[in-house]
């Protein structure tokens, strides 16, 4: 096959993405994407001194996951991040000065490309999810992740859709667990984040005394290299860690029909978590909400969320069920 011929047509790729129940790595699908050149140096030039928020965690391996609620946060430029990760002396002052590179990792995670590059919308076209059968989907519907060695996301599952992840720079190791392993992973909604269900287990160093059932879980481990795209199917658990000095990846969540049911479940969860939290000692609040959730929304607003989710779900049902069946339900 010639270099420029991709292994699957967009139609075939979409069919695989929407139906596959196992994780898969696509190779030779993005060789002509300009986004393959989005290494940290290039992005630093593109951001031109703009600061972004980094999450900092300890490299020491603990028995409990390092949730985002227990991390430190700094605002810095990519240039400052690169200098820190190279051990340059210029970092003795500046945002990273309190964090020794040998002891900490830093992660600019979950950055909406549409937001951080809003002044440069032309670069959205560097990302071409149309090759995966999603015409019109570009960087505008994607997120960016830039990390140092050891940077990680605690094990969790995403309530909505499936996930396509392009590795651009460095390698990341993914530990994936099927939906059937959910009970072995001790799921929790605290810290609460819309659409993320966390595991209480640090899968990289599990506490088997506290979480004996984790022995029954089956990890599918994959090391993702630059130019490869990983498909994380709906409701697969994943723990992700950077294993090279600098890593850059880009992802996009693909909506699925089942998301309408999940939205109802999420609206109920939000209502419950916020109601319980507001009844708690207000001083404990910070451990409840993931930093991505700005505030505990009011009971009124949560019921509106729930109402919208149920309405959208029922509308969906009506559209897909013949009229006569509908009247009976």
TrEMBL record:
<feature type="domain" description="JmjC">
    <location>
        <begin position="105"/>
        <end position="269"/>
    </location>
</feature>
<keyword id="KW-0963">Cytoplasm</keyword>
<dbReference type="GO" id="GO:0005737">
    <property type="term" value="C:cytoplasm"/>
</dbReference>
<dbReference type="InterPro" id="IPR041667">
    <property type="entry name" value="Cupin_8"/>
</dbReference>
<comment type="function">
    <text>May play a role in cellular stress response.</text>
</comment>
<dbReference type="InterPro" id="IPR013296">
    <property type="entry name" value="HSPB1-associated_protein_1"/>
</dbReference>
<dbReference type="Pfam" id="PF13621">
    <property type="entry name" value="Cupin_8"/>
</dbReference>
<protein>
    <submittedName>
        <fullName>HSPB1-associated protein 1</fullName>
    </submittedName>
</protein>
<dbReference type="InterPro" id="IPR003347">
    <property type="entry name" value="JmjC_dom"/>
</dbReference>
């Amino acid at each position: 096959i010639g270099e420029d011929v991709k292994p699957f047509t967009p139609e075939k790729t979409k069919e695989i993405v929407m139906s596959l129940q196992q994780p898969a790595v696509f190779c030779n699908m993005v060789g002509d994407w300009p986004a393959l050149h989005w290494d940290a140096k290039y992005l630093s030039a593109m951001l031109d001194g703009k600061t972004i928020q980094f999450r900092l965690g300890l490299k020491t391996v603990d028995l409990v996951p390092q949730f985002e609620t227990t991390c430190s946060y700094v605002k810095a430029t990519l240039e400052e991040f690169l200098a820190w990760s190279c051990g340059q002396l210029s970092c003795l002052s500046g945002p990273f000065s309190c964090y020794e590179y040998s002891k900490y990792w830093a992660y600019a995670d979950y950055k909406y490309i549409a937001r951080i590059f809003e002044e440069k919308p032309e670069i959205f076209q560097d990302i071409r999810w149309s090759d995966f059968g999603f015409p019109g989907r570009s960087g505008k519907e994607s997120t960016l992740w830039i990390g140092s060695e050891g940077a990680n996301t605690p094990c969790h599952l995403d309530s909505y859709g499936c996930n396509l992840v392009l590795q651009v720079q460095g390698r990341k190791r993914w530990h994936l667990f099927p939906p059937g392993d959910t009970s072995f992973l001790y799921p929790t909604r605290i810290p609460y984040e819309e659409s993320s269900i966390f595991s209480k287990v640090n899968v990289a160093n599990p506490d088997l005394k506290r979480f004996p059932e984790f022995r029954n879980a089956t990890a599918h481990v994959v090391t993702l290299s630059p130019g490869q795209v990983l498909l994380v199917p709906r409701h697969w658990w994943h723990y992700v860690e950077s294993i090279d000095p600098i890593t850059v990846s880009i992802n996009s969540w693909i909506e699925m029909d089942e998301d309408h049911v999940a939205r109802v479940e999420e609206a109920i969860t939000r209502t419950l978590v916020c109601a319980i939290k507001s009844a708690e000692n207000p001083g404990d609040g910070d451990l409840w909400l993931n930093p991505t959730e700005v505030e505990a929304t009011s009971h009124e607003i949560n019921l509106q969320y729930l109402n919208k989710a149920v309405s959208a779900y029922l509308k969906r049902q009506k559209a897909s069920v013949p009229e006569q069946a509908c009247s009976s339900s």
